[in-house]
Amino acid sequence: MAVQISPSILAADFARLADEAAAVPNADWLHVDVMDYHFVPNLTLGLPVVEALRKATATPLDCHLMIADPDRWAPQYAEAGAGSVTIHAEAAKAPVRTLREIRAQGARAGLALNPATAVEPYEDLLPELDMLLLMTVEPGFGGQKFLDMVLPKVRRARELVRRHGGRIWVQVDGGVDAETIGRCAEAGADVFVAGSAVYGASDPGAAIDELRAAATRAQG
Ligand SMILES: O=C(CO)[C@@H](O)[C@H](O)COP(=O)(O)O
């Protein structure tokens, strides 16, 4: 599948979110990290900001819920207009119901796995999914170093997805930059979240072009 780049607004200026969204017109998605001080030791934003961003940009929102009770809140993010809503396997208590509710609201449904969470136990959930998100840092903060140990899991996820028809996107998130993105693409990822590498660059749009080119080259 063609490479997709999803810049993470966690690395953007929160006081100027509409401008920051406008600074990346070539992004496929805008990655919105929702954190609640419980599932991760950080707090970011919630539904009102997602609703406001939805009106401020035409770029679809890729909401990644790092929250303790995704079963309660995920459908509301889809209802608020997110194009994709991803819940964590480690937090969801009723993932089948929640993933179905996300889809019923018209959004794509994603399942995220922390670096130490294996993908194989979730094979039976694949029919409920549009995307698997493999964290390549421990969730909670931007600007961390990419964890190479996740790359074999990216390969295994791609193989599982292939056996189930190849329809599901494989997203990587954390420490993705112009160097690490090639290894992720080569391992089978096709959707790339990048915070610091995009919003830390002097020209965020050019940084996206560079990431896309590096991933496309590595896909071969
Ligand atoms: O979900 C997270 C962190 O928990 C990510 O989306 C980060 O925001 C990515 O930031 P960089 O590692 O690219 O700076």
Automatic annotation (TrEMBL):
<comment type="similarity">
    <text>Belongs to the ribulose-phosphate 3-epimerase family.</text>
</comment>
<feature type="active site" description="Proton donor">
    <location>
        <position position="173"/>
    </location>
</feature>
<feature type="binding site">
    <location>
        <begin position="173"/>
        <end position="175"/>
    </location>
    <ligand>
        <name>substrate</name>
    </ligand>
</feature>
<dbReference type="InterPro" id="IPR013785">
    <property type="entry name" value="Aldolase_TIM"/>
</dbReference>
<keyword id="KW-0119">Carbohydrate metabolism</keyword>
<comment type="pathway">
    <text>Carbohydrate degradation.</text>
</comment>
<dbReference type="InterPro" id="IPR000056">
    <property type="entry name" value="Ribul_P_3_epim-like"/>
</dbReference>
<dbReference type="InterPro" id="IPR026019">
    <property type="entry name" value="Ribul_P_3_epim"/>
</dbReference>
<feature type="binding site">
    <location>
        <position position="64"/>
    </location>
    <ligand>
        <name>a divalent metal cation</name>
    </ligand>
</feature>
<keyword id="KW-0479">Metal-binding</keyword>
<feature type="binding site">
    <location>
        <position position="64"/>
    </location>
    <ligand>
        <name>substrate</name>
    </ligand>
</feature>
<dbReference type="GO" id="GO:0004750">
    <property type="term" value="F:D-ribulose-phosphate 3-epimerase activity"/>
</dbReference>
<dbReference type="InterPro" id="IPR011060">
    <property type="entry name" value="RibuloseP-bd_barrel"/>
</dbReference>
<comment type="function">
    <text>Catalyzes the reversible epimerization of D-ribulose 5-phosphate to D-xylulose 5-phosphate.</text>
</comment>
<feature type="active site" description="Proton acceptor">
    <location>
        <position position="33"/>
    </location>
</feature>
<feature type="binding site">
    <location>
        <position position="8"/>
    </location>
    <ligand>
        <name>substrate</name>
    </ligand>
</feature>
<keyword id="KW-0413">Isomerase</keyword>
<feature type="binding site">
    <location>
        <position position="173"/>
    </location>
    <ligand>
        <name>a divalent metal cation</name>
    </ligand>
</feature>
<feature type="binding site">
    <location>
        <position position="31"/>
    </location>
    <ligand>
        <name>a divalent metal cation</name>
    </ligand>
</feature>
<feature type="binding site">
    <location>
        <begin position="195"/>
        <end position="196"/>
    </location>
    <ligand>
        <name>substrate</name>
    </ligand>
</feature>
<protein>
    <recommendedName>
        <fullName>Ribulose-phosphate 3-epimerase</fullName>
        <ecNumber>5.1.3.1</ecNumber>
    </recommendedName>
</protein>
<dbReference type="Pfam" id="PF00834">
    <property type="entry name" value="Ribul_P_3_epim"/>
</dbReference>
<feature type="binding site">
    <location>
        <begin position="140"/>
        <end position="143"/>
    </location>
    <ligand>
        <name>substrate</name>
    </ligand>
</feature>
<feature type="binding site">
    <location>
        <position position="33"/>
    </location>
    <ligand>
        <name>a divalent metal cation</name>
    </ligand>
</feature>
